[in-house]
Amino acid sequence: MRFMMKWFAVWVAFLIAVHVSGQNSFKARLLFRNDSTPVSYAAIRLSGTEVYAETNFEGKFELVVPKGMKVLQLEVFAIGLRDTVACLATAQGQLLFIDRPSLPLGVVNIEGYTARGIVEKAVAMIPVNYTDSSFAAFTFVRRYMKVNNKFRNLIEARMVVLYLLKTRKKNQTPEYGFCVQNIRRSPFSYVIDDFKYGRDILYFLTQDPVYNVSLSALNPNAFDYYNFSFDSTSNDSVYVIRYSCSDFSSESHGLENFLELGMEGEGTEKGCLVIDAETFAFKRIERISERNPNYHYPKNNNCLLPSRKYFVEFVQGTLVSEYKERNGKWFLTFQGHQHTNDYFDMFTGKKIYSISDVTEWHCDSVTHFIPTSMAGKFVSDTSLTAEEYSYNPSQWTFADSICYYFYTANEVFNSLGAGILPEQIFSEGGKRLQK
User: What is the spatial distance between Cα 163 and Cα 332, in angstroms, rounded to a whole number?
Assistant: First the structure.
């Protein structure tokens, strides 16, 4: 598809209000005690609060400290890493140290070291290869669910997504803004009431491994647990590297506080990394995760939803992220994420639902400018479920050429309504949000 529009020269970064803080800023650098190497891409939480930060590649971070707090207890966590460090709030530029997790010698994969070195260099090159300037991405997103082997809740939307990057804090999770241009969906209803409170699109974007390294399989703190190897399809232009991890997985399967819950051990994962041989930019990242049968959930195997009606167990998940180079920088052009959970009745233990949540996201173009018609229309999150609309098929001819990634269009539409035309399904979906 192609977007035609008038541009005006307003930088995307200035479209969102500047954060105002009356609190104190604390800056420090986090290192491993044994060799003084930086603790890169780790999440930092001020214990007892909801104050978070993230270290960059050099281990540096900055967080906001409530006034009057003199001693800081900092929780450090990432895929493959969990520790706590205490320090004074008054000193700036401190060097903080934590212990590096120790591993049995047999876990280290000597044969895959060269492959690992390439991945480490690619992670180190992220600040160079991917833009640190805020930008807008013109996108098409498709979401749907598979509930007990039947498809439902199909949503398609054209939207502009703002990536609001903090240029002074490279490699930190960006903030986002959303402007929905067109939307269509099948009749929508919540399978489980707890799903009403999910931030589906925002959560999906945080799965991008490049801009969310601390939450992804690219977190170098986890590499000691990985087995790396070259794939036979590597050539002079690309490195194709496979990895596997039997200790944990970075698949969060819909849980926004996945790392804080300490549940990464519920899965194992394997994946494939395609890296440009010249720039060391990631071109494609694929991660496949499966439930670890030896993992037992906290609290007697019950991972409860807030309503306490169901407990959840992870089944499997797949993430695919693809990037292309544009004017010397690499941008996300496609991302697909599918994860499946089983939901059990809290009182009987009977499995009620097997639910696969699927999102497929395509980016047509990116720019550092936005059209005048969109000024002031961006919001910090969007559910894509509540807005009523009048369906106009002529606005959606482009969508027919955008293939489904995980399933086929025939599978989805036959399940949504055998013998019912897609136009009828989408027209009905615009009338109301079913209770």
Answer: 11
Residue 395 lies in a domain: yes
Cα separation, 349 vs 307, in Å, equals: 16
Q: Which two tokens stand for residue 120?
A: 């480490």
In a 3-state reduction of DSSP, which class is residue 363? strand
Instruction: Show the tokens assigned to 407.
Output: 């399933």
- Within the chain, what is the greatest distance between any pair of CA atoms? 69
Which positions ≥6 away from 274 have C-beta within 8 Å? 238, 239, 240, 282, 283, 284, 285
CA distance 207 to 242: 19
366, HSE (Cβ side, Cα atoms, 13 Å): 22
Buried b or exposed e, range 227-251, using 16+ CB within 10 angstroms: bbbeeeebeeebbbbbbbbebbbbb
In a domain, 70, yes or no: no
- Cα–Cα distance, 365 to 405 (Å, whole number): 20
The domain in which residue 350 lies consists of 124-429
**Cβ atoms of residues 190 and 200 within 8 Å:** no
3 state DSSP class of 49: coil
In a domain, 45, yes or no: no
Asked whether residue 118 is assigned to any structural domain, the reply reads: no
pTM of the model: 0.78
Phi and psi torsions of 256, nearest 5°: -70, -30
Are 76 and 30 within 8 A, CB to CB? yes
Burial 345-374 (b: 16+ CB within 10 A, else e): eeeeeeebeebbbbbbbbbeebbeebbeeb
Q: How many domains does the chain have?
A: 1
| pLDDT above 50 (res 9) | no
pLDDT tens for each residue of 117-171: 999 999 999 989 998 888 999 999 999 999 999 999 999 999 999 998 765 444 5
Query: Of 29, 84, 25, which Cα lies nearest the Cα of 51?
Result: 25
Helices 409-416/422-429 angle, 10° precision: 60
User: Which amino acid, 75?
Assistant: E
Q: Is residue 201 within a helix (H) or strand (E), and if so which, with residue range?
A: helix 200-205
